[in-house]
From TrEMBL:
GO terms for molecular function: aspartic-type endopeptidase activity. Residues 35-54 are annotated as: Disordered. Transmembrane segments: none annotated. This is Gastricsin. The keyword Protease applies. It holds the Pfam family Asp.
Length: 381
């Protein structure tokens, strides 16, 4: 059984503005969670969106936590007056949903963060229904519009999902979170409230940068213009041309376990390149059965996921550039025991794909360009 260790992180969200900027601080949330990548969704009768413009501003939003079982969460609000919700950030899915009063499922049990449309003067039930499935569960929802509160931004008539049934691992009782903020590029269902911040020109340019430092207290998430001290660190931009479903990926041509003598044991098929999904919604890295078996063998991972704390490095060639992680970068130490942050998802078998979770963002400075469909990679420090 893998053990969980909580860490905290203060993460700032910055948005470019043509005027003087304001700063908004939101209380820190630390969360633990399980992976839920590979989301699929459906919505009936997508409706029209709202084109209201409001001022752009600088936003400072906290996120929390890292390492196995720990994800990043942010507090947002819906309604007039606003009802607050702590949502998991997920670049691997494209829907914002929150649980609704009277909903069924373990997400709703003993959860004080339930949306009550009767308590909002701006709530509107569109009459549409939607669903989204993750590896860790499924959510069925009614589609509402209401005022969306994101930092100091207030967006009227924002579409979102109000869950009527929600069964997932990341329950409020265990993790203290109440829903998911999808950050993928897709907007076909009209429920991607995050992308709407860009589509409605509330934040420009339409970029997100993840500056997740090894010390979570030094971590930042930046929306809009990147500060010069970060943009000057040597970020290289690549076309995001190998990724399906409007997500963000890198191309992996090599993944090798490097022993203490410098010898490499490579685990990817040499005659193929792999598409690696960048997914903040997965707290571990997911690989296919063949790659997982080879990794576990070379890393010395036991059946319960434990491994030597002096394990070898792992090197990658991603978009033609080499990166190398130490055992501290891909494993979690708890009470003298180390746990691998690699796991097997047999749905990836034969696809030449794998998923990078939180460990990628804590080891590689990552920027996502939504308008130009590019991924930027650079050194973390």
């Amino acid at each position: 059984m893998r053990l969980l260790t909580l860490f905290s992180a203060f993460v700032s969200l910055l948005a470019a503005t043509d005027q003087a900027t304001a700063s908004v601080s939101v209380p820190l949330r630390r969360v633990v969670k399980t992976p839920h990548s590979n989301a699929t969704s459906n919505v009936e009768h997508p409706g029209s969106s709202n084109d209201t413009k409001i001022k752009r501003s600088e936003l400072q939003e906290p996120l929390g936590g890292r390492q196995y079982g720990i994800g990043y969460a942010i507090e947002i609000g819906f309604g007039t007056p606003p009802q607050k919700f702590n949502l998991l950030l997920d670049t691997g899915s494209d829907v914002l949903w929150i649980p609704m009063e009277g909903c069924n499922g373990n997400i709703c049990n003993n959860n004080p963060e339930l949306y009550d449309p009767s308590q909002s003067s701006t709530a509107y039930n569109t009459g549409e229904t939607a669903w989204i499935s993750y590896v860790s569960g499924k959510t069925v929802m009614d589609v509402y519009t209401d005022t969306f509160h994101f930092g100091d931004l207030q967006i009227p008539n924002q579409r979102f999902g109000a869950a009527t049934t929600a069964n997932m691992y990341n329950t409020y009782e265990v993790y203290g979170t109440s829903g998911i903020l999808g950050m993928a590029r897709d907007q076909w269902d009209g429920l991607n409230s995050f992308v709407d911040l860009f589509n409605k020109s509330l934040i420009t340019p339409a970029t997100v940068s993840f500056n997740f430092a090894q010390n979570p207290n030094d971590s930042t998430l930046i929306l809009g213009e990147t500060p010069s001290e970060l943009s000057n660190r040597g970020v290289i931009w690549y076309d995001n041309d190998n990724c399906a479903d409007h997500k963000f990926c890198v191309t992996a041509s090599s993944m090798c376990v490097v022993d203490k003598d410098g010898n490499e044991n490579c685990v990817l098929e040499s005659d193929h390149t792999y598409s690696a999904l960048l997914d903040t919604g997965a707290t571990i890295n997911l690989v296919d059965t063949q790659v997982g078996a080879a990794l576990n063998r070379f890393l010395g991972v036991s059946e319960d996921g434990s491994m030597p704390c002096d394990g070898p490095d792992i090197s990658f060639v991603l978009n033609g550039k080499k990166f190398q992680w130490s055992v501290n970068d891909y494993a979690t130490e708890d009470n003298g025991v180390c746990w691998s942050n690699w796991d097997v998802d047999n749905s990836l078998d034969g696809t030449y794909q794998f998923n990078f979770g939180d460990a990628f963002f804590t080891n590689i400075y990552t920027s996502l360009d939504y308008d130009n469909n590019k991924v930027g990679l650079g050194p973390i420090n």
